[in-house]
Fold this sequence. Notes:
It is a single chain. This protein has 300 residues and is α+β, with helices and mostly antiparallel strands. Helix content is 43%, strand content 12%. The chain contains 14 helices and five strands. A five-stranded antiparallel sheet has the order 1-5-4-3-2. The relative contact order is 0.13. The mean pLDDT is 96. The structure holds a DNA duplex (15 and 15 nucleotides).
Amino acid sequence: MMQIKISTPRSFNFVRTVFSHGWSELVPFELDQKKWRLLRVIDLPARPPVSITICRAKGGLRIEAGEELNEAQEAAIAKAVRHMLRLDDDLKPFYAAVGGSENFEWIAREGAGRLLRAPTVFEDLVKMICTTNCSWALTDKMVNALVRLLGSETPDGRRSFPSPEAMAAMPVAFYSNEVRAGYRAGYLKELADQIASGAVDVEGWLTTELATPELKREMKKIKGVGDYAAENVLRLVGRYDGLALDSWIRSKFSRTRNKGRTASDKKIERYYSSFGEWRGLALWCDMTRDWLDGNKAAAS
DNA sequence: GCGTCCAGGTCTACC
DNA sequence: GGTAGACCTGGACGC
């Protein structure tokens, strides 16, 4: 049994982070909302993947795995956790930007704004394509099938998110017939092929020097990635000026910020424009503030 | 039981 | 550069 502790920034809020959007509900994440423990399957080099659990501990987080691991493997797990929970992101400028605004000052107080992400951009991108133009139930079904049918097995019987190579090895028919991805089947196959062959490097999006508009153009070159998917992936690589408006956001904005009346995209843009390069994150926090209402465990 | 709508959109063809 | 129409799936809804 492995157990490691990692420190977190003073402003870090574990619950707000793991519950920052829907990813914690999709395998190979599993979220226990009663105990606020996040389970995740992590890939490691030259051995089967492992299931880890992450929970709050004094001064930071405690990570547990059900087996012994060497020092390098523990370091790899800690690195993946820091990446997923955005522990090294500097949100001070964001908190300064929202701090003076009524209805937004809670964001800094509660330490919101760290959006959970997968260990790889590839996984985030595949999942984002699986959220387009369908219900969340269908997204869940597609992602489940990918992990169940193509992921590597852990010692405790779970499965990791499939590698680009594992996905590239399957034909388009697999994605329509088994994954039930519909017209997205070709997009998933093409994306996996491009990454497995080295033609496209999406992990490089994390560190690229490209300005956000150019990076967004790069993202939209991937078939199946439009404005919504690109702007959401931009958030997950740390760029927050896109609003990533979708049917859920439009509906929520109308209900909470426009007296129930339909709001144009222009109006939504104007509402958050004062937050500049942080407007997309301000919007997301504003729209998801009530997700923890009624949950006392979330307060700390 | 059957048809329609639409959900955390995107692509293509055509102006 | 802007926009209609098509596109897989599956659950909700009305009849």
